[in-house]
Write a structure and sequence with these properties.
about 15% strand, alpha/beta, 8 helices, 7 strands
């Protein structure tokens, strides 16, 4: 059962997505109704994680958040109930890795942004090996996803949102383990990460006139 904090924030960001940014979402039915999966998406804005989590109503989602956001009792309480997984960026965080793998073992859905941070220029960056590690270790389907418009709404250099920009989310077909995992590769995790990032890059924006 969803915690009330999660439910309220989902409602607020879903409303903002549709009402403030004229949001559109495509191929939401590609999100599994049950079972574990990774959702891999580009990262351009602070709005990406809450928008993405809010729009996936059929599943409860989990995502990474930097440990600095857990530096007080109130913040820890809030972000814990928003299903945030604390991670020490810039280091190999064994605790965070175990948390993700345990959640996947319990059939949860995990949002991951393979680039690791928000793009500085609106272009797609290179994927880190982390997404490949989680995918290969868990052997779960990976759903590529791409968000359009959020960089223009509020990028890492913005002080205020651009209320005149439209946001769009497009989901693609799942990538199965046999498609991304080459167990014989010396760079197994990085190779898997590149395959996943390439799938994200191939997603094109969809015209609102096309159903």
């Amino acid at each position: 059962m969803l915690h009330p904090v999660y439910s309220v924030m989902r409602y607020l960001f879903k409303s903002a997505f549709y009402e403030l940014f004229d949001g559109a979402i495509y191929n939401l039915n590609r999100i599994p109704q049950d079972g574990p999966f990774l959702l891999a998406c580009n990262h351009a804005s602070y709005f990406d994680p809450p928008f993405l989590g809010a729009m996936i109503e059929q599943r409860e989602m989990f995502a990474f958040a930097k440990k600095a956001l857990f530096n007080s009792k109130l913040k820890k309480w809030l972000f814990t109930h928003l299903n945030s997984i604390p991670v020490d960026r810039g280091h190999t965080d064994i605790s965070a890795i175990r948390s993700v793998l345990n959640l996947l073992k319990n059939s949860k859905g995990i949002m991951i942004f393979p680039e690791g941070t928000r793009t500085p220029d609106g272009k797609l960056g290179k994927a880190h090996a982390g997404i490949g590690l989680f995918a290969c270790k868990s052997g779960v389907p990976v759903i590529p996803c791409r968000m359009f418009g959020t960089y223009e709404i509020m990028n890492r250099f913005s002080h205020f949102p651009n209320w005149n920009q439209r946001a769009t989310i497009v989901f693609d077909h799942p990538i199965l383990p046999e498609e991304y995992d080459n167990k014989a590769s010396q760079n197994r995790y990085l190779d898997a990460a590149k395959i996943i990032m390439n799938a994200i890059a191939k997603i094109e924006p969809i015209s609102p006139n096309i159903i």
